[in-house]
Write a structure and sequence with these properties.
alpha+beta; six-stranded antiparallel β-barrel
């Protein structure tokens, strides 16, 4: 009987000792978790789909958000009218066609054009005559002491007819006429309408047989290889905009992002909407952008290098911002000083060594926040 009691007592002591050892192990394990942190198992981390990453250093900038349109620079638009009026005989190009600079857009006819050639021949003949007369009077004045008054008149007649001749010659050359052929007696019945720039025909304002005057244009040509991004900037932001700043913009229903730079900034405020015009220039050789398109744009200001983390890594609570640092299998919530937003990142101001050297939770933060609040 004593032996049985001894064995039961020994078993009780061993059992108590084992419980104390297990209890001490749990306490020791909990003590390894830093105060203010929460511990997980590997399985729990996988189940919560927690992902971590290191803080990054990027070139960032504040942005000014604005809207605007794509427009053609004035120097890349040409309205083409005839120098003198005429009836259109032939149209060589139509809207959508691409033309080279100097291409013949149309041929025109008019009796005034024939008369212009006649006047040119007469003016040339008179200029040649008075040139010889002026030369002869000059020789007489030297050799025979002839009247200086006659020489002066001969000079005036020569200079007047020479000016008329040169004026008519220039007009015919502008009309695309080879004056040397006219001097040989080969009059031209029709004159050309020539493209002053390379581009695409955007408008045709006439048809065959129409009388085209110099006051109204026949063709409009647009060169859209280079376009302006015209942005409306509010008065409060104007002082922040400088030439050379980066511009990023999108067009409607398209995720493609285009990049430009501020080329010029307006100096006058529109009283109706309190904005001014800021222009960027973009290369459009692929013709992807079209004049008149609406754009949503961002102008980058105060560019600098900064430490950033993805937006989804930050949790805001009671007006403060927090992130979670991962250390082994535990997660520590710390408060941060959040800067401005840049794309899908937030600037982190004044990060300490611990933050720069730690793994930061970038996915699963709201799960960890809920777990933290539950334990609190």
């Amino acid at each position: 009987m004593k032996k049985t009691f001894y064995l039961i007592f020994l078993a009780f002591l061993i059992s108590c000792s084992s419980k104390d050892m297990n209890s001490n192990a749990v306490v020791a394990e909990e003590e390894t978790v830093e105060k203010g942190s929460i511990a997980f198992t590997t399985e729990q981390i996988d189940l919560a789909e927690i992902i971590t990453a290191r803080i990054e250093k990027k070139e960032i900038a504040e942005t000014i958000e604005c809207s605007g349109t794509i427009e053609v620079p004035p120097e890349n638009i040409a309205t083409v009218s005839p120098i003198i009026g005429g009836f259109i005989k032939t149209l060589n190009y139509y809207p959508g066609d691409v033309v080279e600079k100097g291409a013949t857009l149309a041929y025109l006819q008019h009796s005034d054009f024939i008369n212009l050639q006649q006047q040119y021949i007469e003016a040339k003949s008179q200029a040649d005559y008075y040139k010889e007369e002026y030369k002869r009077q000059g020789e007489l004045t030297v050799e025979n002491a002839a009247s200086i008054k006659k020489m002066q008149k001969a000079k005036a007649d020569y200079l007047s007819t020479e000016a008329t001749y040169k004026s008519l010659k220039s007009q015919l050359e502008l009309l695309g006429v080879n004056t040397e052929n006219i001097e040989k007696g080969d009059f031209v019945k029709e004159f050309k309408l020539v493209a002053p720039i390379k581009g695409s025909i955007s408008q045709l304002n006439a048809n065959t047989g129409t009388y085209a005057s110099s006051e109204n244009f026949v063709y409009e040509i647009i060169n859209s290889n280079i376009l302006n991004v015209n942005m409306n900037i509010f008065e409060k932001d104007i002082s922040k905009v400088k030439v050379g700043q980066k511009v990023q913009f999108n067009i409607l229903n398209n995720d493609k992002q285009f990049v430009s730079k501020v080329k010029r900034a307006g100096i006058k405020i529109d009283k109706s909407n309190r904005t001014t015009l800021v222009q960027g220039i973009i290369d459009n050789k692929n013709q992807y952008l079209k004049p008149g398109m609406y754009v949503s744009a961002f102008i980058s200001i105060n560019e600098k290098e900064a430490f950033v983390i993805p937006i989804e890594a930050i949790v805001d609570q009671n007006g403060e911002s927090f992130i979670f640092l991962k250390k082994d299998l535990s997660f520590k919530k710390i408060k941060i000083e959040k800067g401005f937003e840049y794309g899908c990142f937030f600037e982190i101001r004044n990060p300490d060594k611990e933050l720069l050297s730690s793994e930061i939770v970038i996915k699963g933060t709201y799960y960890l926040m809920a777990k933290t609040e539950g334990e609190e």
